[in-house]
Structures are given as structure tokens and as C-alpha cells.
Amino acid sequence: MDPNGDHDIVLVKYSTGLVQQWVQRFDPGGEEFMTDMTIDNSGNVFITGYTDFNDSKDMFLLKYNSSGTLEWNTYHNGMFSGNDSSTCVAVDSLGNVYMAGYEWEAHRKRKSHCHNV
Q: Which CATH number among 3.60.21, 2.40.10, 1.10.10, 2.40.160 corresponds to the domain 9-116?
């Protein structure tokens, strides 16, 4: 939670001896909630979740390298412009990243949807 009372994403890396290596915070300005994280064979960290901007939730996907630098972030606003939430992230052996979750239509029907980055 930041000083304004908003929820943010915090990523902390510890060594095997539990010595803190680095800390990163993701705060684009709204309420951010993490739902899943995975690490690839190169030590890159992928985090997914949803963010709440202007009373509408959108999925997000972050990539941090093994040194803790944010390499990229992307958002997915569903086809129905409702409240969207990702539930999982995966990386295949070729390095393709997959984010899956739900999109909500204005009248609250849930639709499953996958997003390949």
C-alpha cells in the first residue's frame, strides 16, 4: 500500500541466505493486485494481475529481468470494456508469454479469454 492508501505490487528478491538483493514497486497510479507470478529459465520474473483505473479493471502483465529491472509492462482491456482480471501467467520453452483470465461484460456475464504477448 502506498502513502495514498492504494495497493501496489512489490517484488523482493532474496539470496539463498535470505539477504535482500533488490526491491521493486509497480505503481502506475491506481489499485494494483497481483494474481500470479512465474520465473523463466533465465531468471526473468513475470507478474500478472489487474489494476483499477477510473472504476474499470484491466489485466496487466509485467516482466522484470533477473537484476530487478522492469523490462516491459502491458495492459489488456477486454473486448467488453468491463472489469477484467487475469488469473495466471505462463512462459513456454520458446519464451512466449501467456496470460489468461476473465473479461466481464457490462451486464456481468463472465467470458474466458487468453492473451498471448
A: 2.40.10
- Torsion angle in degrees (nearest 10) through CA of 88, 93, 94, 95: 40
Written as nine digits, the cell of 112 is: 474466458
Secondary structure string (H, E, C) spanning 14-68: ECCCCCEEEEEEECCCCEEEEEEEEECCCCCEEEEEEEEECCEEEEEEEEECCCC
* This prediction's pTM: 0.79
For residue 74, the 8-state DSSP code is E
Cell of 33: 493486485
Contact between 48 and 60 under an 8 Å Cβ cutoff? The reply is: yes
Predicted pLDDT at 78 = 62
